[in-house]
Amino acid sequence: MAIRIGDQPYEGRVKAGVDNTFMREAVSSAQGRFRSGKQKSSEELGNWEDWRTLGEEIRSHTLENIDYYLHQLSDKVEERGGHVYFAETAEEANTYIQGIVKKKNAKKVVKSKSMVTEEIGLNEALEEAGTEIVETDLGEWILQMDEDPPSHIVTPALHKNKEQIRDSFRDKKGYEKTDKPEELAAFARQELRKDFLSADVGITGCNFAVAESGAVTLVTNEGNARLVTSLPDTQVSVMGMERLVPTWEDLEVLVGLLTRSAVGQNLTSYVTSIIGSKLEEEVDGPEEYHLVIVDNGRSKILGTEFQSALHCIRCAACINVCPVYRHVGGHAYGSVYPGPIGAVLTPLLDGYEDHKELPYASSLCAACTEACPVKIPLHEHLIRHRQIIVEEEKKSPQTEKIMMKGFAKWASSPAAYKLSEKMARTSLKPWTKEETIEKGPGPLKGWTDVRDFPAPAEQSFRKWFKDRKKGEDS
Amino acid sequence: MKVSLFITCLSDLITPKVGQHTVELLEKAGCDVDFPESQTCCGQPAFNSGYLQEAKQAMKQTIRAFQHADYVVGPSGSCVGMLKEYPKAFEEERAWYVEAKKLAAKSYEVTDFLVNVLNVTDTGSTFKGTVTYHPSCHMTRVLGVKEAPRKLLENVKGAEVIDLPEAEDCCGFGGTFAVKNSVISGEMVKEKSRHVSETKAEYLVGGDMGCLLNIEGRMRREGKNVKVVHITEILNAQEG
Fold this sequence. Notes:
The complex is a heterodimer. By secondary structure, chain A is of the alpha/beta class. Chain A folds into 2 domains: 10-300, NagB/RpiA/CoA transferase-like (Rossmann fold); 398-473, no CATH class. Chain A is built from 22 helices and 13 strands. By secondary structure, chain B is an alpha/beta fold. Chain B folds into 2 domains: 2-116, no CATH class; 121-235, Rossmann fold (3-Layer(aba) Sandwich), CATH 3.40.50. Chain B has helices at residues 9-13, 16-28, 44-49, 52-65, 77-89, 94-106, 110-117, 137-142, 147-154, 177-180, 182-199, 209-221, 231-235, and strands at residues 2-5, 32-34, 71-74, 107-109, 126-134, 157-162, 203-206, 227-230. Chain B has a 4-stranded parallel β-sheet with strand order 2-1-3-4, with helices on both faces. In chain B, strand 7, helix 12 (209-221) and strand 8 (227-230) form a beta-alpha-beta unit. In chain B, helix 11 (182-199) packs across helix 12 (209-221). Chains A and B meet through helix 1, helix 15, helix 17, helix 18 and helix 19 of A and helix 1, helix 2, helix 3, helix 4 and helix 8 of B.
């Protein structure tokens, strides 16, 4: 699947999103729940702004010293019997994991939820090599069944309702019961249990790797990651190279920010840390453990003005407050990373060519920046992306360029500006009825497609001020 | 106190009465208001669209226009918020950076100026009717002006202020966003219009004409008769 999803152009994706009434209701009500949950749990914690500052400091310190911490992490994992592989590209990561699966002659792989494996298209790579992959996160399991990409980074099947899920279970897995969530979940649990028990390899993502100990930590609510990391003999964790914290203490801060920001929980049901493989003196643990650290474009972001985008802890708080996301849904972004953070990250990881609309898919309302628990200035990054698209990539529309050149001339010359005092009203006269423009020309069209525009005033403010002054003086 | 009015191009050309109310309000509060005539537009439409070089030409004009001002006060959270962004844009042009910093430091949104500089929390106005307040995004999140407009509104005689549901959600204006992404912007403003209707208020009040024109334009299109007013109009209203 890789980072890009689907090949529909942006406008088509937006339209599909806007027209999908059910999805929009589901997203809107989920956003409502997430937002009030976050509000409540952050208030209960108290001093939320101080926690955010601390979170930002930890992330920024970690990224500033990422070479050191990656080294430390890698040493610790190897000390504990694990293998560490640094993959520069998605292909390298996939090839390495294919190699493990082949060597183990694995027929079946169980996976817990992982965005980075979505990003690199690991499932497709393994399926091509003839291995059966089973996603064990409930949302991901549903999506896998429907061959549907995730639309949210925390709750990937947010866009589906229980009736749709029941139908998929029935058509694909022979489910015979109702659309009651308990029955659906019980069925999934039953089915998945068989897969857990017969899997040869377990693959997980990584919420945070603790550099001082080599512990890969997974934050989940379903307990599936526990089974993925305890049943198969061979285990693989895949992490984006920035997903680490220096110490256990830092981990506590960030997990607290993550669970509260993501779903309004003080703590998720499971926080699982796994370290390396079974050592000689130990009674359990995997026979073989691999940590795959994926770069895939991240190191190019280091040292740039976008470095703070790598601070992201994938909580989706920005997505949960985003009004654009609410109306178009996750698939409209055409990336496995939707919402504000997706609009910032996707062009950085996959280039502007296919994603040049994303930085503009925001009203710059800054709700994302305000929500981010590690203070990534998301809307400012979006503006910077726009500057690059215009000034470096030169991908902005020709008409817009001409208009902006005109704007610069107009706004930098009081004389030119003064001309527009009268001209604005006169030039719009043909479209004006009762001081209102219902169908505007040129750039106004987009505006008047959905709302009226008022006719420019008969007399500008500056004229009024001047006349008033004259009256006072005489 | 000498105050230079930063009218914003939108209010200058489209809704001049916002400027008139602002001038009168400031004068009532004891300010001597002047209007530097060489001001044009703060450059935000170009800046937010990624045209930094074009935006800078407008920004330089604005810096020049207000060079001699003691205080720069404007009836828009968004446009004043833009002035505060100037220093960042000129980080690599030392001379302009220094001027940009000065401008940013002396610029205020009008309600913020009334409450936090002039210590006025009651403008002595009377305005009869039910009103609901839309806190615009740049006013609240970029500029950080949250309390001042509410405080002033609470003290308007005759006005009953009704809470707007999901008040801090964007109305979908976003400057060029409203044109460039008009489909999404349209969905956002429809939602805002719904929330305004839920309050059953007679007036929608706000501190940013861009957002207000957007919401007003949509509500007119829907045939609703909610009246949309800039906050300065209510704060300057007299019984009559």
